[in-house]
Amino acid sequence: MNETAFRVYGGSALHGEIEVQRAKNAILAMIAASIVVEDGETVLREVPEIEDVERACELLRAVGARVHHDRLGKTLRIDASDVRNGRLPADIASQFRGSVLFLAPLQIRLGYVELPGSGGCDIGARKIDFHHRGFARLGANVQYFEDGRTVIDLEGGRFRGTLLYLDLPSHTGTENLMLAAALAEGQTILENASVEPEVVDFGNFLNAMGADIRGLGTSTLVINGVSRLKAISYTPMPDRLVTGTMMAAAAITGGDVTIHNVEPSHLRIVIAKLEQMGADITTNGKSIRVRRPGSQGLNPINIQTHPYPGFPTDLHPCMAALSCLAEGTSYIRERIFDNRYGYVDALLEMGGDILISQSDVCIIKGVERLRPAHISADNIRSGATVLLAALAADGESIIDNVYQIDRGYERIDELLSQLGADITRVSRRPIPQPVW
User: Domain range holding 246?
Assistant: First the structure.
């Protein structure tokens, strides 16, 4: 069986103009929510062709929905009228974190859901028991089994409005409980809700379907339950994380790149930090231009991740790649996930000078250059990080396991090629293992 890899010849500045895809973290919630629509066809437009969307579509089909994904037209049509199965297959659900978003809609539709486990990126503890506690407060019965299964039954056939509080403003937790409350009997107040743009976009999607959700963009949501939601056609927001990655690509290569179809207000702190590092950034409506002459060095940076509007944890690894080439020492503190530093070994192999302190601070001393290497992508954002490093390194790098990058980035090799990058997708045969 062949695996896909990227072959990257780095060392060239990126130049040109591109458009970015729509937001994965909004689309996955919308795909799952389509399950609650009993009549009609939910239509999502400008849907990127990424692996996490493919897994979500597979889950939809597994529970009985009819799905048509027009990849050429970037349109996803979902008919959930025949949904009959509340058990999520382990082989699909384990491959991406978005499977957790199927919990609320299946309870609403069928009165139960069985989840074998959730997958996604290995970036530390991302427990979902607070989802379960929220469902319990809304009237569900949660059962845990020794084989790892979780079964949630909705007694009485409908959630009941109540006061909910999230210990952390999780975006998936907010989305799950927001949907549950949208179709609950009575009013729900959700405190410490996520204010991430993708959550707001999902809330706008639900309101367009007929929900009554107030306070979107604030930490307190007031949700008045309705009896049903209707099928609609909707275009999700641009992906700010892909945008941030491409901004970092321009900066690390000393290029000049304009990114269209974006929302600059979602990236204020990312823009500020890149400017601190020496990038020249201008915004014009829905476009962002990032310039850094190759002769101009990068400045060291101090970053601490925090829920939106703080610095996004998903873009912290990209900033680590930039910091490897800064003229001085950078400090990055991860405050959301406890294993976000999975990219460190790959950057060390490429010549980075990185230390994780006893207080869990990533200390990066800038080096003159990074060297090409044969490395692997271990999750979506770490994969983007090693790709950025490969673009900056003089010579040929091979990046294995690009499935992880493809989970969140639509044909990023083609996108970078538009900007002059020398990158190709190649098939690699796994190294045979000896038989003893």
Answer: 3-21+239-428
